[in-house]
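Researcher: Structure for this, please.
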Amino acid sequence: MTSRLFAICFNATRPSDLARFWSGVLGWESADGPDGDVAILSAGAAGFRIRFLPSQEPKIGRNRAHFDLTSASPEEQQRTVARALELGGRHIDVGQRPEDGHVVLADPDGNEFCVIEAGNTFLAGTGVIGALACDGSQEVGYFWSEALRWPLVWDQDRETAIQSPDGGTKITWGGPPVAPKKGTNRLYLELALPAGADREAEVDRLVSLGATRTGTGGDSGNGALLLDPDGNEFSVRGPR
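Model: Predicted structure, token format:
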């Protein structure tokens, strides 16, 4: 049985504060994490939660992944930006051009995210988190398509994107050049297996697709920690 995307995890210096920020920005509700940690969950059917895990590792450079938040209108984009700033976010410059319609911000822990302008057809119908936008190769896009069994919804000019067959948030990779990885990623994917599944068999499947074992453990002792073909950490929890 294939594991599913259970959570997008943030390594955070102040997990509770960061959870409050993202709960306020997204309108998501607090939820009990699987290990007593801080988590938020969509009131609808987003299909995954966001977990905030304690970490004191300093941020080194830009994250390899960030959220692209959607807007139904220019007014909604302005409201989202204003709400984020009110909750402790800030404007940052990552080289965006004055004519670009999206707004680039950082959350209180320095994690970058974008508030996309209205009318973006690629993100239409995805929900408030339109995409988890990643710095990554075409190969890693193919890996995650097979790992999650999510179809490719974009594969052009070495850029890739996948989306669950049920819709919702897309995961995208921008293609080369891919910046060298520096330290442990602050954002990473956590997979979970359905009841009755064999975790070791699933880990073997992921390794056959191009993942690398790093040992067992991770944040809770209940997960196998692996690296995808671009060296990004991800974990596989036991059946849930």
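Researcher: Any notable elements?
Model: The radius of gyration is 17 Å. The domain at 4-173 is CATH 3.10.180.10 (2,3-Dihydroxybiphenyl 1,2-Dioxygenase; domain 1).
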